[in-house]
């Protein structure tokens, strides 16, 4: 009897470059482009709408908070939908909403219109990352799913960098049109994406799916969910406060020249691109998500202290610190991956979508604390207090979470 030659196992690259991984990565690129475009064009867009210098910070915070409020509500909606109807329903619906909303942002003539459309865009933007990471973790083998989510996160950060260059090449209104157009183009590519087999198998069973109350009905499950959120707080403290309002911090520090917010955002995400790759590879080498994340949180604390307390006077040095802050923020993919891995298939999309959006939404209380403390302690020390709070909570929460690197994801949560 003639033996058939054994088929060689598919290469690592071939396993990684599956259509769901590529489409999730490109989707997050567009998502991050739209999400951070406001940080890049905040000043020129508000100037064009007639906002005076004394209203630039409060109006900017209000618009950012409207976007984050939309992401909070959208995170809940898309997360539940992803577990009830499937991951693909979220990937299609969310990109359509935020693409149309961002095209609408290019037509605004008042701050009120701007706020409404940032809220709608936030609702749409909320679904992209969680659904993408959930799909990637479910279609890839256990040993390499960390590489898959690293690819997704890295492409997303490149989207934030792209936002800077597009806003530099085009007027702010056209930059919004570009983002919306990219999203609609990607919508066409998603037609051929397939659902994960784990979820398809689950649909045939009589199991509760996407039941948000299950996250709160069990004390241990709720604490695990809360701890996932707390681990990501330092990332959005840096992005939502230190970098978005970098011109105000530059002035408080006494820099030799004004800070360009768009450039600070771009450089931060250049650093985060490298950080996402580094943290993903480190996690694979250590075979531990937690150890890699702990290191990056401590790095973030170090660079926050330098940003706020070091006697920086040269603008170039300030921008260099922005790059380092971005690098330390490069555990975003690992943080969302842990959230997806910690919960069963019937709640995985709900958790992976709501957790990053609750972290983003935490910018609302964080900026409120920052503004409250600014009157008494000044810009720098108010930010320092908020930053130390986020790092402390993150480290405590990370310590309590289980390691998920080798965890089998084919399981469900029960009442």
TrEMBL record:
Highest taxon of source: Bacteria
Topological relation to the membrane, as annotated: Multi-pass membrane protein
Keyword check for Membrane: yes
Residue ranges occupied by any Major facilitator superfamily (MFS) profile domain in the UniProt entry: 20-405
Localisation per UniProt entry: Membrane
Stored PROSITE patterns: MFS (PS50850)
Any single GO CC term annotated in Swiss-Prot or TrEMBL for this entry: plasma membrane
MF GO annotations: carboxylic acid transmembrane transporter activity
Residues annotated as transmembrane: 21-41, 61-81, 88-108, 114-135, 147-167, 173-193, 222-243, 249-271, 292-310, 316-343, 379-401
Coiled-coil residue windows: none
Keywords for the protein's UniProt record, in alphabetical order: Membrane, Transmembrane, Transmembrane helix
Descriptive protein name: MFS transporter
